[in-house]
Design a protein that fits this description.
Elements lengths: L2 H22 L11 E3 L3 H9 L11 H10 L2 H4 L5 E2 L38 E4 L4 E7 L6 E8 L14 E8 L3 E2 L8 E7 L6 E11 L5 E10 L6 E2 L49 E3 L9 E11 L2 E10 L8 E6 L5 E6 L2 E5 L2 E5 L11 E10 L11 E4 L1
Parallel strand pairs: 3-10
Antiparallel strand pairs: 1-4, 2-10, 3-11, 4-8, 5-6, 5-9, 7-8, 9-10, 12-13, 13-14, 14-19, 15-18, 15-20, 16-19, 17-18
Length: 393
């Protein structure tokens, strides 16, 4: 299945779920709306982070949790409605600094919490100079143009976003769409070449200016230029198809059953020979951080059963040179205890988990990866709480 088709299905599921949840809570879905879903906007990724099997929204990301604590979950159920009905294409001088991510606080919903100047929002990891596909939700399709801005080199996410921080990258008028608008979950899409020579944190701000009314939509996406290929970190995703990724052409995907060619297969004493027959299909939660070392990790649940599950973690090196050692750290979900781990050295302290490389898989070649696995007892919390950190030397 193509990435574009997959992201269409994803958008359909997300928007349909949002409508159902809004109806169940007595909310009225907005009639016209849209934000970036690749790279994911703050509202979209926090919505994804909060999804549960019951329809409730319970984010694990600290910034998303703080946004819910301040404004409740209603803005998340309406993640697509960051809008100003009277903006009419006005930006700087009209939308106050520090309120760009909330449409100047003029939306029907209170998105003020998503202006918070902090560095722990969910992030999309990208490579300077790469070409990515931008996907923008088109629940209600309208003619108009998309103004794509990027913060300047050196901008800090701990300072409120201001117009002076931004430079206009491009303006895209009436880009093509895929899928149907509304409940069918379609989106606009276009290719965007990222500027060269960039590193560190950045914010992508997009203002969608309708040409058939005064209504405009606003979207803030947190980025890191660190050699990434569209990985989303700092987010808890319930399934492997919960969030599309930019079409950089080299985006890695978790491979729960694959073992690195440079490491031996786990022995019978260190890994299960089979999963219980009741295990569901694999699910993934791209969750982690990618510091300047170029190291990051993605977490996948291979299978689960009553009282336990099996997981796989792919450790990736996005450096141009090999790394010689790596260390992962994360916190297990409440009631989860790792019982067996292979292809790594495990240390635990309560819910805190540290995994260092084994003697045979510490070296990871440039733009390559290795994989570890484990089994755990669980009361149903099969994913980490928050992010997985990865450091390498």
């Amino acid at each position: 299945m193509s990435r574009r088709k997959t992201s269409t299905i994803v958008a359909a599921l997300a928007t349909a779920a949002a409508t159902i949840c809004a109806l169940l809570l007595g909310l009225s879905p907005a009639n016209a709306h849209g934000v970036a879903i690749v790279p994911g906007s703050r509202t979209y990724l926090c919505y994804q982070d909060g999804l549960t099997g019951t329809g409730a929204l319970t984010p694990t990301n600290p910034a998303c949790q703080a946004a819910v604590a301040q404004g409740g979950t209603t803005p998340l159920y309406n993640w697509f409605a960051v809008l100003d009905s009277n903006a009419g294409g006005r930006g700087q001088g009209y939308v106050p600094d520090g309120t760009l991510c909330s449409a100047g606080n003029k939306s029907p919903y209170d998105f003020a919490a998503f202006n918070a100047a902090r560095d722990d929002w969910p992030k999309t990891h990208l490579t300077s100079g790469a070409t990515v596909e931008v996907d923008y939700s088109n629940w209600a399709a309208h003619p108009g143009e998309f103004r794509v801005y990027l913060t300047k080199q050196g901008w800090s996410p701990t300072t409120p976003l201001a117009w002076a921080d931004l430079g206009l990258l491009t303006t895209v008028a009436n880009p093509p769409q895929v899928g149907s608008p509304g409940a069918d979950g379609g989106h606009y899409y276009w290719n965007l070449t990222l500027p060269s020579g960039r590193s560190g944190a950045a914010e992508m701000f997009i203002q969608w200016v309708r040409s058939d009314s005064q209504e405009n939509f606003f979207s803030c996406s947190d980025l890191v230029f660190d050699g990434g290929h569209g990985e989303v970190t700092g987010i808890h995703l319930p399934t492997s198809s919960s969030s599309p990724s930019p079409s950089t052409g080299t985006s890695p995907s978790p491979s729960p059953s694959a073992s690195p060619s440079t490491s031996p297969s786990p022995s019978a004493s260190s890994s299960p020979s089979s999963s219980p027959s009741s295990s569901p299909s694999p699910s993934s939660s791209p969750s982690g951080t990618m510091p300047s070392s170029g190291c990051m990790a993605t977490y996948s649940v291979v299978g689960s059963w009553g009282g336990g599950f099996q997981a796989s973690v792919e450790v990736m090196n996005h450096n141009a040179t090999p790394v010689n050692s790596w260390t992962l750290k994360w916190q297990t979900g409440p009631g989860t205890t790792i019982t067996s781990l292979w292809n790594g050295a495990l240390t635990t302290s309560g819910s805190d988990v540290t995994v260092k490389n084994a003697a045979y898989n510490g070296t990871i070649a440039a733009n390559s990866s290795t994989t570890l696995g484990f089994t755990a007892n669980s009361t149903g919390n099969n994913f980490p709480t928050g992010s997985i950190s990865c450091t390498a030397a």
